[in-house]
Amino acid sequence: MYDPKSLKAEEFISHEEILDTLDYAERNKSNTELIDQIIAKARLAKGLTHREASVLLACDIPEKIQEIYDLAEQIKKDFYGSRIVMFAPLYLSNYCVNGCTYCPYHLKNKHIARKKLTLDEVEKEVIALQDMGHKRLAIEAGEDPVNNPIEYILDCIKTIYSIKHKNGAIRRVNINIAATTVENYRKLKEAEIGTYILFQETYHKESYEKLHPTGPKHNYAYHTEAMDRAMEGGIDDVGLGVLFGLELYQYEFAGLLMHAEHLEAVHGVGPHTISVPRIKRADDIDPNAFDNGIDDEIFAKLCALIRISVPYTGMIVSTRESQKVREKVIRLGVSQISGGSRTSVGGYQEEIRPTDTEQFDVSDQRSLDEVVHWLMDMGYIPSFCTACYREGRTGDRFMSLCKSGQIQNCCQPNALMTLKEYLMDYASEDTTKIGEALIAAELNHIPKEKVRLICKDHLEKIEQGIRDFR
Ligand code: SAM
């Protein structure tokens, strides 16, 4: 029996409930009365259950799909405005003791050079990232208790936050490392991490165990309950995700939403973000070996449905996706993207993109300046804001701000100010020109006059050289 309050992974995301959901969805995929009811509920922007959302996923009536897309676009506009938060991954170490069959870092792969950044090298990478204009990082590492123990990760975080280079510092470090203990999560919280991100990879337990045949990651329950331990350790911003392509997308979608329901039911706050990575070609990996790959249309539909099912949760798309795909899904609900990414250890210090040790092929290879320019050309505001987390607005405090609709008076000015900093300090001439015009126009979209005037004043001060308003 599905009980979202259960702390047991197999119970809260039960195989039986997912199969039953898929059966229910299949039986109702042409039930227009029910579909209309579900879409009407989604319009209230309070979310959908995994069962309701799965019916919409199964539905293939073109007019209904168009309605879903239009609604996703509307909800995105209402909750996120036109802001897109920017970040970059930073790979610390590709040492790994796991046997994940889809990941080139797996223990048995002897082709890739194993590398772990020293703290001096971390500093060099961070300076290279700061020189691009990044303020928010997601650190990545393989799982290896000897080479990458928690102390190493903590030292890296400390180093990253300590580097004051030219115009400021990295202001938020999100962490994507393997499932760990409550004690270690507590240490990460004390080190002031932003979001703890862990992809489930797949919610299908049997497949999970085959895809992770060896190493600590083989333990499905330990992996699936990681977010509960993270929250017990005090981390209240957690990021979910599945690696699309490993299992049936309908199965993963239901599992993902059940996981979100579980976090909300047990901890009072749902996931801060959901990532939607798709499997990519990589060294020693043949993506064709995974026969559950999804095409761009299904990918877009999944993004739109996540947007209307969990309206307050940020959605992340990485440079695994091409410019064309990113363009489509940003409109449908994605709120955070990476730019100028290198997915190899030490990659940011290299002039030329190193391909031999990349974790996966990067589809969007443009520079951060090009990505920022492109976003603004489409009318979006690239945001380098990290204010919520630094002001302690995490977990349910962030969610209530979001739900109160006050985000326009809070996030909009912060986005404009951090964009202004970017334009002053890092952007090309052309990007600056478009950006200045965008800021002037967007200033008028701040609803409260008082907030608008403060923002205008801060923008002038940034022009004069002052940075990092808090
Ligand atoms: N080692 C950590 C763990 O086990 O969760 C996380 C870090 S790993 C560098 C980040 C993510 O990359 C993995 O969770 C996986 O979903 C993704 N990944 C691995 N191989 C991939 C591939 N071939 N294509 C796309 N994404 C991949």
TrEMBL record:
Gene3D superfamilies: Aldolase class I. The keyword 4Fe-4S applies. Keywords: 4Fe-4S, Iron, Iron-sulfur, Metal-binding, S-adenosyl-L-methionine. Its cofactor is [4Fe-4S] cluster. PANTHER family: 2-IMINOACETATE SYNTHASE, THIAZOLE BIOSYNTHESIS PROTEIN. Residues 275-382 form the Biotin and thiamin synthesis-associated domain. Transmembrane segments: none annotated. GO terms for biological process: sulfur compound biosynthetic process; water-soluble vitamin biosynthetic process. InterPro entries: Aldolase_TIM (IPR013785), BATS_dom (IPR010722), FeFe-hyd_mat_HydG (IPR024007), rSAM (IPR007197), rSAM_sf (IPR058240), ThiH/NoCL/HydG-like (IPR034428). One of its GO terms (molecular function) is metal ion binding. This is Biotin and thiamin synthesis associated.
